[in-house]
């Protein structure tokens, strides 16, 4: 009896250890086998409803993504380089132009993914693929080429951080950096970011509990477009249906009826009240906080709400609510004479409410403490 109790106790300890350690004590081969069996049940529509539920972070990748790999597929091809560089230039130019506008336009990774899928498929059909031209068109456009193109294009489709320093010196200090110095400054700042990313990947990327919903949804779309089976065919049809509907719908709020970008019942009821405009307005730049406004433009709503965890969205919503309270309290409480200035603005103002002349503080492009003491 005592031996049996010891055995039971050891079993409990083993189970407890497994529960505490989680995935780390699970053998990779066993996990791979479980994933393979789960994927087979999914494809045959034999998976139970409970199996779709995600309880742990690592299960997102296991239950959403396929472990299928084809080592013979080439990632670096003529199509990869041509389309990757082309979309990188397109995204970088567009992102940089709109960076200086009041309403920043981000080049969506989804947009680049779909566009490159079309172009890659077209090149696979139209380019010659025999004889000496085999290196130009090695076969059907594959998932590895597609992923490499998006890595290049999405990395370039953001404004370089160092551009702020270069632009401010030119706009406000009448100092133009040498073109070579400006280019190497941009390259250096970007490489510094990639260096930090490499140093932190063991902490923020490799642990199974550190999953990135945006990346997982993108990888899932890659597999849906390139892996032809029953499960992914349904997803592809659903994707293209939603894509077409959104394409035609966006014409309405963007061109025909822009009011749909921000509908406020309170502002429609009383459009002359500054208080209503500051609290409930928000369709235009620096108009208001947009509290309880309705937006019918998916371009502004975004897709984060579709794949981000609920706890993350609640955390963001709490922060937004606190911002509403803080901004309204500071302004209408007239803290620091807040009512003497606009409710929202990107400008700097003087004590009398006029726009502050920043250039008046400079002498030969450098800060002058004497002028600052005079102007305040």
TrEMBL record:
GO cellular component term of the entry, any: membrane
Predominant location category: membrane
Tagged with keyword Transmembrane: yes
The keyword Cell inner membrane is annotated on this UniProt entry: no
A Pfam family reported for this protein in Swiss-Prot or TrEMBL: OPT
Region called Disordered, residue ranges: 1-20
Subcellular localization(s) per the UniProt record: Membrane
Keywords, alphabetical: Membrane, Peptide transport, Protein transport, Transmembrane, Transmembrane helix, Transport
GO molecular function, one term: oligopeptide transmembrane transporter activity
Transmembrane residue ranges: 81-100, 106-127, 147-167, 179-199, 238-257
Bilayer disposition of the protein: Multi-pass membrane protein
GO BP term, pick one: protein transport
Similarity annotation: Belongs to the oligopeptide OPT transporter family.
Name under which the protein is recorded: N/A
Source organism per UniProt: Ganoderma boninense
The encoding gene: I1RTX0
